[in-house]
Amino acid sequence: MKKIKILISGLLAAMVLISAAAFSASADIIYIRGDANSDGRVNINDVTYVQRVIAQSESDPQGVVERNCDVDGNGLSIVDATHIQRYIAMLANPYQIGKQFHYDEYELPFIPTK
């Protein structure tokens, strides 16, 4: 009987750990700032995709473009597309475009350091 209690306790503990890991994995998203199409690179295709979403000729139902490409934290706009173009042209990059970030739905909006 004692072995059964130990076995059940072990199984319950394992289930709790697996559930916690699954929850934390879904809450923590890794993304590249400026990567609108989530292909792992920031290039002109991302700028075009941002422009299409802004013009409403492309949809963003899960908010991926908004999350990845609102680089200045002021809402997705043509200014964000311009910042990404400046990054592609290897100009100043105060918004850390092209860098990998962890997104948690509870994080505060990004505020760039200058």
Describe the structure.
The chain has about 110 residues and is mainly α. The protein has a two-stranded antiparallel ribbon. The mean pLDDT is about 85. The protein has a domain at about 30-105: Dockerin domain (Type 1 dockerin domain, Orthogonal Bundle), CATH 1.10.1330.10. Helices cover about 45% and strands about 10% of the residues. It has 4 helices and 2 strands, in the order H-E-H-H-H-E.
Short synopsis of the structure:
With 114 residues, the chain is mostly helical. It has helices spanning 2-27, 44-54, 64-69, 78-88; strands at residues 28-32, 100-104. The model has no long low-confidence stretch (mean pLDDT 83).
Instruction: Specify Rg, calculated over alpha carbons.
Output: 20 Å
Strand tally: 2
Write down the overall geometry: elongated
CATH superfamily of the domain at 30-104: Dockerin domain
Roughly how many Å apart are the termini? 65 Å
In CATH, the topology of the domain at 30-104 is named: Type 1 dockerin domain
Number of helices: 4
Structural class of the helices, strands and pairings?
mainly alpha
Reading the helices and strands in chain order gives HEHHHE
Amount of beta strand: 5-15%
Low-confidence stretches: none
Q: Helix coverage percent of residues?
A: 40-55%
Largest sheet features:
2 strands, antiparallel
| CATH hierarchy class name of the domain at 30-104 | Mainly Alpha
CATH architecture of the domain at 30-104: Orthogonal Bundle
Strand arrangement across the biggest beta sheet = 1-2
Q: Mean pLDDT, nearest integer?
A: 83
